[in-house]
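Regression test case RT-17, inverse folding.

Input:
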């Protein structure tokens, strides 16, 4: 067995982060009680930020990024896992504070791992990945708040992205009427195939609201954009509705008034998939297995290799990546 493994390694010099494929000594793997032979990983917006040194998400270099992965346990000192087990990891600040999945090997805490759900392949698990897990967590949270499919349109902003694509497919499969917002009009047919009944131009929501309350329009929302878009759509939410806030592609500022909250009882529900407790995490994966139509999942996949990751990291920050990106590391 080789004493090195291939990985995307980030280095920092003169405050500039660079990414390169390197052979890394196994002795450099971080502490953890489970070592996983990685089969697949994926690409999320956060990965794009890490690959390009944006936001100071990584403080210590050299660093292996990749916030999620699927693979097979090679060694384990954790009572719940044994060699040969198929596992999935999303979140827990892996790829940020802890070396991640853009590598042939990963060593992590066993408490961060989930056994591969029945009916999924390791590649399916990364077609879902953090983005799909976040989408299902958002849907589940909105329904716990009281959302039902007879209340009207549910808006998904950034609908052609990873979270947006999976959220749209799940909501449509559950019987909701889905409005999808996108800045890419060429993706309208793609969104309709996922289940969007109304495609909304991103520009329609991108302007700062002209008044604190507008006509009631949406029964719920999964928002990937934040910024001015969130300020705008808050004025259009129906009485008692909620926005599941999952992303900040449009910025992390929020300029609004309290009137949507006080006069219409609107809520903002923060969705954090990174530190989501394991019990809730397992429940969400069970819902994904039941309620995400696999045909639609497979339709939104683009496949790449580890060597493509540096350029993909730039593309996703420009909004040029559609759906879900599966990166094959070793197959399986």
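Golden output:
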């Amino acid at each position: 067995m080789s004493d090195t493994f291939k990985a995307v390694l980030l280095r920092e010099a003169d405050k500039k982060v660079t990414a390169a494929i390197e052979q890394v000594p196994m002795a450099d793997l971080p502490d953890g009680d489970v070592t996983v032979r990685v089969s697949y990983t994926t690409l999320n917006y956060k990965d794009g930020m890490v690959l390009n040194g944006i936001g100071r998400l990584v403080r210590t270099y050299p660093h292996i990024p990749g916030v999620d992965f699927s693979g097979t346990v090679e060694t384990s000192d954790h009572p719940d896992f044994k060699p040969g087990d198929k596992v999935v990891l999303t979140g827990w600040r892996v790829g940020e504070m802890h070396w991640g999945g853009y590598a042939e090997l990963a060593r992590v805490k066993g408490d961060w791992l989930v056994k591969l759900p029945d009916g999924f392949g390791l590649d399916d698990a990364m077609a879902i990945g953090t983005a799909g897990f976040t989408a299902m967590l958002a849907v589940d949270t909105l329904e716990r708040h009281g959302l039902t499919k007879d209340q009207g349109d549910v808006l998904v902003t950034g609908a052609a992205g990873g979270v947006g694509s999976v959220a749209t497919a799940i909501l449509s499969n559950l019987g909701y009427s889905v409005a999808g917002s996108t800045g890419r009009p060429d993706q309208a047919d793609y969104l309709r195939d996922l289940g969007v009944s109304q495609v909304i131009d991103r520009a329609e929501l991108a302007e700062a609201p002209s008044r604190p309350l507008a006509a009631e329009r949406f029964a719920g929302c999964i928002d990937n954009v934040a910024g001015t878009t969130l300020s705008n759509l808050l004025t259009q939410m129906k009485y008692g509705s909620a926005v599941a806030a999952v992303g900040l592609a449009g910025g992390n500022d929020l300029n609004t008034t309290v009137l949507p909250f006080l006069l219409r009882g609107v809520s903002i529900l923060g969705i954090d998939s990174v530190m989501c407790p394991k019990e809730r995490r397992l429940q969400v994966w069970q819902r994904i297995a039941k309620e995400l139509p696999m045909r639609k999942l497979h339709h939104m996949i683009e496949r790449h290799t580890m060597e493509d990751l540096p350029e993909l990291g730039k593309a996703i920050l420009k909004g040029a990546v559609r759906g879900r990106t599966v990166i094959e590391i070793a197959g399986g």
